[in-house]
Specification:
With 675 residues, the protein is an alpha+beta fold. It has four domains: 83 residues, Gyrase A, domain 2, CATH 3.30.1360; 138 residues, no CATH class; 163 residues, no CATH class; 169 residues, Glucose Permease (Domain IIA), CATH 2.70.70. It contains 23 helices and 25 strands. The strands form seven sheets. It has an eight-stranded antiparallel beta sheet with strand order 20-16-17-18-22-14-13-24. Strand 3 and strand 4 form a beta hairpin. The radius of gyration is 34 Å and the shape is elongated. The two termini are 37 Å apart.
């Protein structure tokens, strides 16, 4: 049973599953729902703290809270049931939107990269963990505490550090089995079959085939190449530890066989015969054909990139970080990641990750720049997003929170980040030239913690620092927002100030008691609210703003103004006066709270056409001039000039009675009040 306001609101809008997204402005929760038809509006409006509920076009819904909206929003988003139902689109949502641009054009290509992504993404955690174990070993080796490189581990370091090696080799060595499991799952094949087929070539029995009497081995370029006789047929024996192309191709073939067998065998015997024939067919096919072919492909691609790195190292160093920002949003970076793993398996090291790291740190640098600018602008939402993304990047080497959470949403960031990528690529290309590039023996997430796994370490450190600093400074210098986005944010801030409920008590000194005949000061009761503008009165329910029309902010009237002079409708203290000049909140001495809102959405004008005559906390009398408004300029800009006059605290008063439609002059009564 829902107990808190947040829980009750979520329940009445249809539960967490019905919420697509949630944001808020100064007074309202803004829901995007899967089905707005299931909202229990009556029950929603009865919740304590809810001022009103307003359906919008489509499946959008607004719940009016007032000044406490920020805390209610925080309470909702922090509910355990609301995980994943945040205001901004998720990383996956943004990625899907980017991919959707290409979907249908080259559908098979999109499906291919989705397959790669689903095969590797679940393994990112253990890959990160193993890379940190390698990083510790690299630090110990660099400090000459424990020898790890170019030595017999057992002889030089002892059993303890051989065991240490096992903690990360378990991931890289058995990576093909893990990839096979995920790939099978992605293609809707029993994942245990995929894992079992791949595991067959890791068994002691398979590995012992090298020692069979009829196995022939030759040494080629320092490596043993063996061929065993199986069923009278030659089978090339390979080491499959760390190989990723083998399980990817194997599972793609397995999926077709699996679907065929599911059609052939009745459902009641599929549990036995489908796995049986999958193993019986796919293990030999993998060992005889897919395995050797896949290793040949991986070696060929790796050799091509190795040639480029050797022949034109500077071009290679620039190319890698410059293409990654375009590959990652679409999930197209997975083939390169697969090549990194293949390089480690075949060469014992990888040469792609060093230049790739400069892209990552350019990405993190741009995020740091956004954090600085957002902090200055007091944009708390972007600031919090940037803090989380920067922590994930610098400590975990994960670029997705930065990329999908910020960079793809603000188009000014990418050009500045690319400059950082280019600077990092040029730096690492020039500095590493004498060393044949930057190399690493680990599949390392390029974070601050994994810097020690790269060699030469100082070259890598300088290069990523250059990429980071350049991208950060460029974003700080030029802002991450377009002028339009900046203006929109500032307008929202102004609107927030104007829409805040007038909950703050009036200053004691501002009260103006009137002396009665006996000499005792008494408060003058507010009986009427006067017209702040001359024009035609219309019912508040007919104004073209659903929140005002629903009376969620209180009862009142709309006035279509015939003159640009705006005066105070009551005597009191100005509690709200935004710089835009489009709204005024006034609190009378006896506690009546009145909001005058000139035009609909006129906050977007940022004060153009408004000439303020008063300031916040100033005392005004009924009829005092508040502002001069250029009505023609507002109309020319495409905005409705209808001025709303609303008693905010209607619910606390005995009665609030608007007058009927009529033409009014300044000072004419438009609302009667009974406390």
């Amino acid at each position: 049973m829902a107990s808190t306001t947040a829980e009750q609101i979520v329940e009445k809008v249809g539960g967490p599953g019905n919420i697509t997204s949630l944001t808020h402005c100064a007074t309202r929760l803004r829901f995007e729902l899967k089905d707005a038809g299931v909202v229990d509006q009556k029950a929603l409006e009865s919740i304590s703290g809810v001022l009103g509920a307003v359906p919008q076009s489509g499946d959008r819904y607004q719940v009016v809270i007032g000044g406490a909206v920020a805390s209610v929003y925080a309470d909702i988003t922090n509910l355990p049931s609301m995980k994943g139902a945040k205001g901004a689109p998720s990383d996956d949502d943004v990625k899907a939107a980017e991919r959707a641009k290409a979907r249908g054009k080259v559908a098979w290509l999109d499906a291919f990269f989705e397959y790669l992504s689903n095969s590797f993404r679940p393994l990112l955690g253990v890959l990160l963990g193993s890379s940190l174990i390698i990083a510790i070993a690299a630090v110990l080796d660099a400090l000459h505490i424990v020898p790890f490189q170019g030595v017999d581990r057992m002889e030089a370091a002892g059993a303890t550090w051989v065991f240490w090696d096992s903690m990360w080799r378990s991931v890289l060595y058995f990576l093909p089995i893990m990839v096979a499991y995920n790939a099978a799952k992605a293609l809707k094949v029993d994942p245990w079959i995929g894992g079992a087929v791949m595991a067959a070539v890791f068994t002691p029995e398979f590995l012992s085939l090298k020692d069979a009497a009829d196995t022939v081995c030759v040494t080629n370029l320092g490596q043993d190449q063996c061929v065993a006789q199986i069923f009278g047929l030659p089978m090339q024996l390979n080491g499959y530890g760390g190989q990723v192309f083998v399980p990817l191709i194997m599972v793609a073939v397995l999926a077709q066989l699996y679907k065929l067998l599911k059609k052939i065998f009745p459902e009641n015997v599929q549990m036995v015969f489908v796995p049986f024939f999958c193993l019986l067919i796919m293990v030999p096919v993998t060992a005889f054909a897919i395995g050797p072919f896949s290793i040949w492909i991986g070696n060929g691609l790796g050799a091509g990139l190795a040639w480029l790195n050797t022949a034109v190292p500077l071009l290679f160093a620039i190319l890698i970080p410059m293409i990654y920002p375009f590959l990652v949003p679409l999930g197209l970076h997975w083939p390169l990641n697969a090549l990194m793993l293949a390089n480690i398996s075949t060469l014992g090291y990888d040469f792609i990750q060093g230049p790739m790291g400069t892209w990552n740190f350019a990405c993190f640098g741009a995020t740091a720049g956004v954090l600085v600018v957002a902090s200055r602008a007091k944009d708390m939402e972007v600031r919090q997003t940037a803090i989380g993304a920067l922590a994930a990047g610098l400590l975990g080497g994960i670029s997705e929170p930065s990329l999908y959470g910020i960079h793809l949403r603000y188009k000014r960031i990418y050009p500045r980040m690319l400059v950082g990528c280019a600077v990092g690529g040029v730096t690492i290309g020039i500095l590493s030239w004498p060393f044949g590039g930057v190399k690493t023996g680990a599949f390392a997430f390029t974070s601050l913690l994994t810097i020690p796994v790269f060699n030469p370490m100082w070259v890598y450190a300088i290069s990523i620092a250059a990429a980071f600093v350049v991208a950060m400074l460029l974003v700080i210098a030029s802002d991450y927002r377009t002028p339009e986005q900046k203006a929109e944010f500032e307008a929202e801030q102004a609107q927030a100030a104007a829409d805040l409920a007038l909950d703050a008590p009036a200053p004691v000194a501002a009260a103006a008691p009137v002396a009665a005949a006996g000499g005792v000061a008494t408060l003058v009761a507010t009986r009427t609210v006067s017209a702040p503008v001359a024009g035609k009165v219309v019912p508040i329910t007919e104004v073209d703003d659903k929140v005002f029309a629903s009376k969620a902010l209180g009862d009142g009237v709309g006035i279509i103004p015939s003159d640009g002079h705006v005066v105070s409708p009551v005597a009191g203290v100005l509690m709200t006066v935004p710089e835009s000049g489009h709204a005024f909140g006034i609190k009378t001495d006896d506690g009546v709270e009145v909001l005058v809102h000139v035009g609909i959405d006129t906050v977007q004008l940022e004060g153009k056409g408004f000439e303020l005559e008063v300031a916040k906390d100033q005392r005004v009398e009924d009829g005092d001039l508040l502002a001069k408004v250029d009505l023609d300029a507002i109309k020319a800009a495409g905005y409705d000039t209808t001025t709303m006059v609303v008693v905010i605290n209607t619910a606390t008063l005995k009665s609030v009675t608007p007058v009927g439609p009529s033409d009014v002059s300044l000072g004419d009564s438009v609302i009667d009040i009974e406390a």
